[in-house]
Amino acid sequence: MRVTVYRSAALDRGALAQVRESGLAPLLRRSGDALGVPSRSGLAVRLTDDEELRRLNRLHAGVDAATDVLAFPGDGRGWVGDIAISVERARAQRPASPPAELRLLAVHGLLHCLGLDHDQPERAALMTSETRRLLPEQDVPDLAPH
């Protein structure tokens, strides 16, 4: 899977260093391979701040609040989708390891783009299991239905 990562100009040097450390593009390519995503498919990831996530959440979900990750599934014809991640929120949610939180959010967004969800207990369990399979080196919390 082809992965393009866009970084917002709003990110400070510390955030950019943590983004580099997280290795999101290679992680998402490996995850796509493991999930059977065709190698010619594309995915875009936007790394930004709470302000932009709030704007996107309001525009697309009608929720006037920032969130950590938003996923916009693609057309199913070679475009996996678009993921927007708040680096600001990732740093706040896991201050001891923002790169680990960024990896978790990226995989979470990819799984949403591929149709997985955590809206019911069984689906949450499957999404948790897939996330753990793709991120075996880090702690992954159980997803609760929303």
Question: How would you sum up this structure, described in words?
Answer:
The structure is a single chain. This protein has a four-stranded mixed β-sheet with strand order 1-2-4-3, with helices on both faces. The radius of gyration is 14 Å and the shape is globular. The protein has a single domain (2-134), classed as Collagenase (Catalytic Domain), CATH 3.40.390. It has helices spanning 13-22, 24-34, 50-61, 87-93, 98-113, 121-134; strands at residues 2-7, 42-48, 69-73, 79-86. It has 146 residues and is of the alpha/beta class.
Number of helices: 6
* Gap between N and C termini: 29 Å
Average pLDDT metric: 96
Portion in strands? 15-25%
Give the topology, please:
Layout: E1 2-7, H1 13-22, H2 24-34, E2 42-48, H3 50-61, E3 69-73, E4 79-86, H4 87-93, H5 98-113, H6 121-134
Parallel strand pairs: 1-2, 2-4
Antiparallel strand pairs: 3-4
Helix pairs in contact: 1-5, 2-5, 4-5, 5-6
